[in-house]
Design goal:
This protein is an all-alpha fold. It contains four helices and no strands. Helix 1 runs antiparallel to helix 2 and helix 2 runs antiparallel to helix 3. The chain is flat. It starts with a helix and ends in a 10-residue tail after the last helix.
Length: about 90
């Protein structure tokens, strides 16, 4: 195996474990995006460009965007930054 293949495999595995162990939701989404982009590079190295484009568009693009919007709608991003709603204490 090539060094790049091993590093990408380790990166995907570390991302998969760290997403499930991270308590911060915003951080989890960013890690998920990184894992999806690494998977799209792996698909390119496996000479499957159609899967790579799909993984990049759906995994890193649309799914992450929907998760960001969901966090914004439930005010999870505002509370993590320390700003509560309507003058409430953020704790």
């Amino acid at each position: 195996m090539d060094f790049l293949h091993i590093m990408l495999l380790l990166f995907v595995l570390v991302c998969a474990v760290s997403v499930s162990l991270t308590k911060n939701l915003l951080t989890s989404i960013v890690i998920f995006m990184g894992q999806s982009l690494a998977m799209s590079v792996i698909w390119i190295l496996l000479e499957s460009p159609d899967l790579a484009i799909t993984e990049a568009a759906v995994g890193a693009g649309i799914t992450s965007l929907l998760l960001f919007v969901t966090l914004k709608k439930i005010h999870a991003i505002d509370q993590q930054k320390g700003g509560g709603r309507h003058g409430e204490d953020p704790r």
